[in-house]
Each structure stands twice: as structure tokens, then as C-alpha cells.
Amino acid sequence: MPESYRREHGDPGAAYHIPTLSQYDDGSNMLININCIRCKIRHHYRPQDLLEVCGDVALDKVTRQFRCERCGRKDYLEVSLDSLMTSEMTELKVRRLVKIKTIRRPVWEDVTPSVDDT
Fold first, then answer.
1. pLDDT of 7-38, one tens digit each?
2. Cα-flanking dihedrals φ and ψ of residue 51, to 5°?
3. 97 secondary structure, DSSP code
4. Model-level pTM?
């Protein structure tokens, strides 16, 4: 597109702003659902827990950091957002973040020892 068009009409992508997790972290009854369409599993998460795990990413980027617990696949996961009433919240099982485990893996490199290393 020519520059004159952008100056007159604005950025064409600005109307399609995708909200991030921090915009849903306001204490409301918002839940983020992650579904595996292959296994038919659905888990409900609070936005503040996912914000701590994934960082402040767009809602459609959350599934990149998850795998299905049953089939182990990433490509069948879908994310959606629900706003629930308090009475509906009591009937659901919501996953809460307890702690984050860091796995330490050594990275090795093969080098040829020099005379100074001995």
C-alpha cells in the first residue's frame, strides 16, 4: 500500500488487536479453556495463572506452550475464553497453579583439549 493511503486511513491491522493475558487479569470471573479436539479433553484455567506460566502473550499464542496430557500433541489444542457467573464457577473444576518446576539439563560440547588445559 502506498504511504499516502496509510496516513489517510490509519493502520489496517489496528482494528484486529488481539488481547493479551494481562488484559483478562482483572479479578473477574473470566476463565480460559484449553481443549484438545482429538481427545475431547477440556481444562479451565484462571488468566493470572497462565500469565505467570506463559507471560503476557496473546490469547491465541497460549496453546504453543501446552501439550495434551493424553495424546501429547500440540496441534489439536484450541483456546477459548469464558465469562461465567458465580453460580457456574462452583460447578467447574478449575486448574490452579501450585508451583513451577524448572528442569535443568546439561548441554555438552566436544572440544579438543589443548596443552594449556592439562
1. 555 555 555 677 888 888 777 778 899 999 99
2. -65, -35
3. -
4. 0.69
Cell, residue 94: 478449575
59: left (phi over 0), alpha (psi -120 to 50) or beta: alpha
> Alpha-carbon distance 113 to 50, whole Å?
46
Q: Is 78's pLDDT higher than 90? A: yes
Nearest alpha carbon to residue 46 among 81, 85, 88: 81
Q: What size, in residues, is the chain?
A: 118
Angle at 52 between CA 80 and CA 98, to 5 degrees: 95
* Cα 87 to Cα 108: distance, rounded to the nearest angstrom: 54
107 backbone dihedrals φ, ψ, rounded to 5°:
-115, 120
